[in-house]
Please model this.
Amino acid sequence: MRPEAVAEKIAPAPGWDPHAVRGDFPALDQEVRGAPLAYLDNAATTQKPRSVIAAIDHYYRYDNANVHRAVHALSARATAAYEGARTKAARFLNARSAAEIVFLRSTTEAINLVANGLRLREGDEVVLTHMEHHANIVPWQLLQQRCGVVLRVLPISHRGELELDGLEALFSERTRLVSLTHVSNVLGTVNPVAEVIRRAHRHAIPVLIDGAQAVPHMEVDVQALGCDFYCFSAHKLFGPTGIGVLYGKAERLAALPPYQGGGEMIRRVSFEKSEFADPPQRFEAGTPHIAGAVGLAAAIDYLEGLDRAAAAEYERGLLEYATERLHEVPGLRIVGESPHKIAVVSFVMDGVHAHDIGTVLDHKGVAVRAGHHCAMPLMDFYGVSATARASLAFYNTREEVDRLVEGLQLAREILT
Amino acid sequence: MSNELADLYQELILDHSRHPHNFRTMEEPRRMVDAHNPLCGDALKLYVRLAEGRIVDASFKGRGCAISMASASMLTDRVKGCSVEEAKGLFETMHDLLTGAQPPPGRADLGELESLAGVRNYPMRVKCATLSWHALKAALGEDEPQSVSTE
Model:
């Protein structure tokens, strides 16, 4: 079908104009190898709006000082900005209080903190799913090696959805945690996490949600979900790299021991004994990434200034358009076909390796990810070593999707 | 198609990737190296049989992109009959060629291998081309080779 025909069939969502927001993202306005950049790698990291870049710049120009320490004006401003970001992140997730928000480097570090803090013992069990990112596999495997923790893996269907019926069968009296992704970074599947949490809590098992791919695309309410832990990274949310958030219910965080030792996380230190601060400071040893927190706050402000419902509706239409158009490419197979998806499309092409697809597309200015997406068990499940992945944001356009399809036709011409 | 892209995906390279030479396992006695590129998950096994200081047979199995398949295919063609010392020298030459450390043209002695030089314009793809060569180097080492990775 011609693009116009597909466009007619799938009417664009009213109430959202991607061109109106593109101007906010300076990095989108450039050429790559002589073609305008079509940035379709948003699940890896998103581009940053001007306001985020400006907030970080402003912080370093005017407010730079260490936090929670000195009495001088700059330290007061830096502390206010840092703690203000915490309050903002708490409101963003609808946490009960800012004390439930820990600033860390990333989603990865958040999962590592919980994994190490639960003080699991030999024979204790953790339930994961087959669609986890390595960040939610390897920290648990380290515990498996170190102290004999047992991993139980919830299978998925070929369509790319959790086999939820098998969940309770994985529970035992030794199950200490269910840890799963809210949205798959490869398949795009939005998991029914509320249902998983309900079932786990019926057995008094706490639940950690990896929200890295969810928060850029949907509103998340941790109280409504009832999860015990929720984590995400700022850089996938139009914010800076190097800062992430761990939300934990107050009583859950209170039960965790310190993660690293150092300044900022103590109440009192002598050579005999140190008393540790309460959460969240207990988990934030050393000078934190203050500018990162400032950038995250600006990113949240930016998002909250948008009509997020309209953006989500637009992304849904864009996904539908992309899916339809990709089906036109001969030999192309989409991996992950749940009806409940964010705008991520992974695919393989007969006779063309994902890496070669990536290189040909790059020549057309189209940026996609090619590889195993840090989800090698999932690649094994589908019997592929790699996929190409186009991941879309609300600033992407149908014209960019058309250029993706043209690039794939070219890759096919060259390589098969 | 742009010149750079045409240079990367020359017909010779595509031929080798579609119909790789020496694409088979090898029985003992032989040396085998598991090579993988953790960046993309590509993995291949390189086999060489040595006799009196020479490579008498070379083959590979695995899956990967056009560049890694073509490179391994050409490698196995080329090193058969080489002495271990010659093959080690070839590793150095290829490493320089692929990473751009040496000027590419006019290496008459490289033959088909020179067609891989286009990869130097693609920093993200160099490791695809060098994967099998790192495996070769490991296979020819003093120690019993195990696995290599191009991270």
User: Anything to note?
Assistant: Chain B has a mean pLDDT of 88.
